[in-house]
Amino acid sequence: MSSDITAIFQIAPTVQILHWLVQGNLASSMSRAARFWVILGIIYRDRLLPDLFRYPDLRDRLYSQQHPTSEKLKAESFVNGCGDRHCICAKSLTHWLHPTDVMRSQLQSLTGFDQQQCEIELTQLPFATVHRSLRGDLEKLAQLGWLKALPRGEFQILSVDLLPQLPSDIYLGSINERSPSQLKMANSWLSQNLSRQQALDLLVALDTLSMVQPNLELLLDSLSELLIAEQDSDRLLSKHQNLPHTFVNLDYILPPEVQDRVDDYHKQLEDLWHTADSGVIQFDYEIVKSDSGINPTDFSRFSSQIKQITVYPVCIHYLRRAKYLSAYGIDPDGNMTWHNYRLDRITSESLKILAWGDHAIPKYLKQLRNSGKLPTSQAVEIELRKAWGFKFYEEPQLLLIRFSEDFARWYVDNTVRHPTFKSVPYPKITSLLQKTVSSDHERDAILAIVEQRNPSDRYYQAWIRPNDINIIQRLRDWRPNGEVLAPISLRQRMVDEATQELMHYLPHWR
Questions:
Q1: pTM higher than 0.85 for the full model?
Q2: 184, 188, 256, 430: which sits with the fewest CB atoms below 10 Å from its CB?
Q3: If 0-12 CB within 10 Å is exposed, 13-18 middle and 19+ buried, where does residue 382 land?
Q4: Please, are residues 155 and 138 in contact by the beta-carbon 8 Å criterion?
Q5: Stretch 393-408: mean pLDDT, rounded?
Q6: HSE-up of residue 446 (Cα within 13 Å, Cβ side)
Q7: In 3D, which of 418, 379, 380, 416 has the Cα closest to residue 399?
């Protein structure tokens, strides 16, 4: 799509755009964000200022002739504007935002305002301020890369290609508040770059993927509009949708109403990550714990409790069944560490986004921010490459697993599980264990088992996070055709599970 940043000034500003303009500090800078948007619109959309200008040039464009120009006036002088109801200083935030219920909800999510605070903020008059504040706005815009500050109080307008670039997803705005111009931008790109058949194929593919990535909804709408607008495409689109030849079934277990709530969380996080300073979130989370019964014929019992979580969100994973948020902060056990949170187990109506000055934010997170060492998604990706499993914050262990030759040939060989997952010849197992298993007792126990197994069977190794539920489920899928040899703790878990399952199916009289 077009990379012309001035497009954001062509329509009413979204909450996400204002949040981005002030580097994620919308809670404390609502009025400044609105001033930034208006000033930049005058400069880059309307072209009402010369390439080199001073503050008085901007002042005279902004304010009416009745507005005082004295630099000595204090803020109290502008509480109710200058007296001219047509002057920009008499216009509230509502004048530019045209807030809807959806926008109010977004504003509360990004700022942490309650409903009353939100309404009070929308009545503020951004330009009812002293001239010193406006001068400060120009200096800040220069620091952010929107202008070039020159000696003697001059500012230079920059070429559009040198301006800050808005992350593409922010153009999408709210799923429920797409503007005609946004759809027009998407349709323009699609019609210029895709054939009708390619657009049809993309529509079907995106319709499936949109289950796990809600931001694709805009592109889906654009494709549909583009296809419906073309001659005879109603018939082709209907035929293509009713007679698909490729099915992709994502194992997404959530019912529609829960999926909608999860998508809202996901969208909130995407918007937060597109701000310059990101932020800390707070939410209520349901912790589920299982207690295995003493009698192996009994099912495990589960209990749950709600805990408040305060963390720095880093990235989202889609794992076989649901979406997980990887975040760093105070985990459910009260420790400062990493944790993966299932989005559908968040019980809050929406995520609460905390300003960095909030007392609820742990001191250590603030120290990481101040030192520029907050965790990143790149760091997560590095750890994921080191070992198989999404509990990337746990210590990796060696997995050694045995398959029959026939099963390995048809279901394991030539499959990609993880970069560390590979076949290991039977004669090399001893040296592998000697290098990778530090405990003499565990190594001897594994070797004793290996010596009793058939050398002609197939053996595979991998580095894994042994407590990761996705690893556990993969091993369950391989039962009874795969035998876990190492680590011993994971082998014992498979023994306990298999024993419990067997006891459920044995006749009671035994």
A1: no
A2: 256
A3: exposed
A4: yes
A5: 95
A6: 28
A7: 418
